[in-house]
Amino acid sequence: MDSSSEPAQRPPDLSGLRVIAFESRMAAETARLIERSGGIAMIAPAMREVPLGDNPAALDFADRLLAGEIDIAIFLTGVGVRALFQVIQTRHARAALIAALGRIVTVVRGPKPLAALRELGLQPTIEAPEPNTWRELLGALAARCDLRGRRVALQEYGVSNRDLVSALEARGAEVTVVPVYRWTLPADRGPLSEALHAIADGKAQVALFTSSNQVTNVMQVAEAEGIGDAVKRGLGSMAVGSIGPVCSQELRARGIPADFEPAHPKLGHLVKEAALRARQLLAAKRASGSIRAVSPARPLILDAQSAPKPHLWNHPFLKACRREPAEYTPIWLMRQAGRYMPEYRRVRDRYGFIEMCSRPDLAAEVTVTAVERLGVDAAIIFADILLPLIPMQVGLHYEKGDGPVIDRPVRSNADLARIPEFDVAALSFVGESIRLVDRAIGAKTPIIGFAGAPFTLASYLIEGGSSRQYQTTKTLMYTEPETWHRLMELLVRITADYLNLQVDAGASVVQLFDSWVGSLGPDDYRRFVLPHTATLISKVKPGVPVIHFGTITGNLLELMREAGGDVIGLDWRVDLAEAWKRLGYDVAVQGNLDPIALFADLPEIRARARTILDKAAGRPGHIFNLGHGILPETPVDHVIALVEAVHELSRR
């Protein structure tokens, strides 16, 4: 460790603090570093590497390498390099493999794979600079090589780095992932269990995480032992250190904000940073009484000394978003301002749909009318998920009976290049609509802003309108992944600006509608959608809850949870109790009455509402809603009866 980089204000000091480190391979070194700074080390290995016994992907990589079908090989870990050679040497001579690697571009992420390749007599072509995350690796590679059309082999370590794969594909590379080992729980889980109970019982002050997979395994064991919530509460009162951005992202995904990262993602720097900052962090937490209500994707942190509580902080709807107990289960309904209401129809008969969206006075009128007529707990601004496509100049218009139509769909890189620079000011009318609603009912009712998710918007753009099979969309994904990823990146930037415009105007919560994503299988979602949706959610302003909703997504729930959102919306095709258990109780849920149920008689509606409330079991974090929007022919009095039943049956 280089002492010259230490701040001058005071020496590192962990004296008397119990420090839990979930380190495996460097357990002994970690303990020495902690104890050298005066800390009481408690080392709890949380993972181990298990080489893949049967690894046809590695053997296929070797065959393609020797055949000259690989242009670039990326090595992410030293253990991975050694494990890979153990496998491929069973089929091919080591000398031939080394010679083949010497003829192509080889890239290493940091000193460990560099050392492993040097052991083989190879000097890599490119070494990622500090802090050697995937972003530095990509930057170094892109600066030296044109990736368009290049065949890239990526040695994965335990799990694939989806962000790196997507970024390589976005630059035109053809990526092959080469697995070499998997991560699993340690054979002896005793130390890990002991550490988790120490955290849950408030007997530790500092926690150090050195990989994202540690986070996953730690919480998996905590949940299995029935102390998941207690561990999260315990970590909330500790100084939590993360080795770097990827690890911090996984902590946030599990509802655990990281308090600090080292300047360089190295174990020694992490312990040093803990020694420098732990006491100050712990004192601040004790003094401030910080409220830590966290989202899966972004921390919703409010420190009493640094930030005021948002407007309507104690409203039941916002409490539910934060998974805090509320006096009753809040309810709002998708399409609550719609054609089933006579007040809406009177306005709609005089104005076109786009005109209603773009005139703040009309949009505010129908938004407020729905809230006041129904007695719901939130207002969702009257708008449309496709409004951001208007300034993209793709010829969006609405055909009676056919829905939205796009005259100039995006089906190639050339089509994408024709889209002009996006200025979110073109959608300022939505912000003004929110301001008008806020003036009318904002003193007592939270306002929801919303947008279409990148996949759904991309599908409209590519298909040119609605679709059943999404053939054109999927074909572009599969055949032109570079164009696909560039389009998704554009939509992420546009949608993030649009959502934050709504937040600035007064929206307390935002909802992301991924209406069409249920057309995908898990593998396609993981590769083509998840990284972009996660990036979008991370760009929403801190402290603003995000509701992440899709339809026909029973097979994608865990992946949607991974992509992010403080609340996961459920459609009526899944059992709420089962779905919430799958998602984990550290995220809120919204739903999920079948919209058709509102056509039943009132006793049946009440019975179905009770069933859903029973499935939520009174657990904090349930927002009652339909599994999709209210249908046009729905009787208004049935909707009002549902709202009243939910309030009555759920009152604590």
How is the secondary structure organized here?
Blueprint: E1 18-21, H1 27-36, E2 40-43, E3 48-51, H2 56-66, E4 72-75, H3 78-88, H4 94-102, E5 105-108, H5 111-119, E6 126-127, H6 134-144, E7 151-155, H7 162-170, E8 174-178, E9 181-184, H8 190-200, E10 206-209, H9 212-224, H10 228-236, E11 239-242, H11 245-253, H12 267-288, E12 291-294, E13 299-302, H13 316-321, H14 342-348, H15 353-358, H16 360-374, E14 379-380, E15 396-399, E16 403-406, H17 413-417, H18 428-441, E17 447-452, H19 454-463, H20 471-479, H21 481-505, E18 509-514, H22 522-539, E19 546-550, H23 557-563, E20 567-569, H24 576-583, E21 588-590, H25 602-616, E22 622-623, H26 636-650
Parallel strand pairs: 1-2, 1-10, 4-5, 4-7, 5-6, 7-8, 10-11, 14-17, 17-18, 18-19, 19-20, 20-21, 21-22
Antiparallel strand pairs: 3-9, 12-13, 15-16
Helix pairs in contact: 3-5, 7-21, 7-22, 8-10, 9-11, 16-18, 18-21, 19-20, 19-21, 20-21, 21-22, 22-23, 25-26
What's this model, at a glance?
With 652 residues, the chain is of the alpha/beta class.
What count of domains describes the coordinates? 3
What's the gyration radius in Å?
A: 26 Å
Assembly level: single chain
CATH architecture of the largest domain: Alpha-Beta Barrel
* Helicity range: 40-55%
Strand content range = 5-15%
Q: What number is the mean pLDDT?
A: 89
Indicate the CATH topology of the largest domain: TIM Barrel
Q: Strand arrangement, largest sheet?
A: 14-17-18-19-20-21-22
Largest β-sheet summary: 7 strands, parallel
- Detail the poorly predicted runs: 1-9, 290-299, 301-308
